DNA sequence: CTGGATGCAAACTCTTTGCATGCAT
DNA sequence: ATGCATGCAAAGAGTTTGCATCCAG
């Protein structure tokens, strides 16, 4: 089930206009790149992908746009124990496995019951919004 | 139930000797600082605390020692979505709440069932070792 | 003594900021 | 026309590396 670029573009345009923000080529291309990315990407990854389609895009713009997209709910920052920031265009509930040796990240799709943790967080005075679940270990290659 | 510095020192000495590594004043003091720290600390935090007890300790030594202690299982790096690396001397299973606005981190003590996630990770070829659970939201102060 | 551990300085990576220009509205 | 968004350069935060010296065993 692949979604077309036009659908991505239309959705982005709608969100941006509803907030009085501009639809620029950089934002359109970055949105397409992110939404069709299979893996978790760094800002550098995004720049590389985008540059193939639109020249002269700068890293500061990539960072600014990633931050914007995060606010818009289009991407989520992945919690990691080190290394450059990773961004994930899947915003639905899922988990990550990270290899502590090579840094590889993969999605998991299982149910994790965080209701007791959320309740404890509220008792501690927090207003929890989402839960990052990261399993740290070794991938098949690094285990060998 | 406070544990004395002597107990910390003895435990550290034992682990280091068993691996043929040296017991230096820097390591002893850092171990005491970390084990008695209530909150989650950055490398800078550790340096500040240590400098009060032992002058001329350098940040590279703090980083090297934190990495060593991580290998020894004395501290764990906390998964976060951004900011400087956080270290936690609690190595038993627990969760964290992080304020996405001010970065405050607090411990939670609840049971989170990650067995299905672990199984899924193994199916994906990983050998999961531990699970980081981080609830992201707003703390009481920042919610206002 | 001897080599692992340290301190210092410098390099490096990742990210943010300042500012002049450009383009979406 | 207006001012938000961009590109470029430079600065900034956090972490790592190189190397001479030191000290724990």
Number of helix segments of chain A? 6
Question: From the helix content, strand content and strand pairing of chain A, which structural class follows?
Answer: alpha+beta
Largest interface: A-B, 43 and 43 residues
From the spread of the alpha carbons, the general shape of chain A counts as: globular
Mean pLDDT of chain A: 94
What's the N-to-C terminus distance of chain A? 35 Å
Strand order of the largest sheet of chain A: 4-3-5
Quaternary organization: homodimer
Portion in beta strands of chain A: 15-25%
Cα-atom radius of gyration of chain A: 17 Å
Order of helices and strands of chain A: HHHHEEEEHEH
Number of E-state strands of chain A: 5
Helical proportion of chain A? 40-55%
Uncertain segments of chain A of ≥5 residues (pLDDT<50)? Answer: none
The largest sheet of chain A is: 3 strands, mixed
Descriptive account of the structure:
Two copies of one chain form a homodimer. Chain A has 144 residues and is α+β, with helices and mostly antiparallel strands. Chain A has helices at residues 5-18, 25-36, 43-51, 59-71, 115-123, 140-143; strands at residues 76-78, 86-88, 95-99, 105-108, 127-138. A three-stranded mixed β-sheet of chain A has the order 4-3-5. In chain A, a hairpin with a 5-residue loop joins strand 3 and strand 4 (105-108). The A-B interface holds A 77-82, 85, 95, 97, 99-100, 106, 108-114, 116-121, 124-140, 143 and B 77-82, 85, 95, 97, 99-100, 106, 108-114, 116-121, 124-140, 143.
């Amino acid at each position: 089930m692949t979604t077309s670029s036009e659908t991505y573009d239309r959705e982005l345009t709608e969100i941006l206009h509803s907030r009085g923000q501009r639809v620029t080529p950089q934002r359109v291309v970055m949105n397409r790149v992110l939404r069709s990315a299979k893996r978790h990407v760094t800002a550098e990854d995004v720049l590389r992908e985008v540059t193939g389609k639109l020249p002269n895009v700068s890293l500061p713009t990539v960072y600014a746009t990633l931050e914007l997209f995060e606010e818009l709910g289009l991407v989520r920052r992945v919690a990691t124990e080190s290394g450059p920031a990773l961004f994930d265009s899947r915003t639905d509930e899922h988990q990550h496995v990270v290899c502590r040796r090579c840094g590889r990240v993969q999605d998991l799709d299982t149910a994790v019951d965080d209701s007791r943790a959320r309740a404890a967080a509220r008792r501690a005075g927090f207003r929890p919004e989402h839960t990052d679940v990261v399993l740290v270990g070794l991938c098949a290659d690094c285990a060998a």
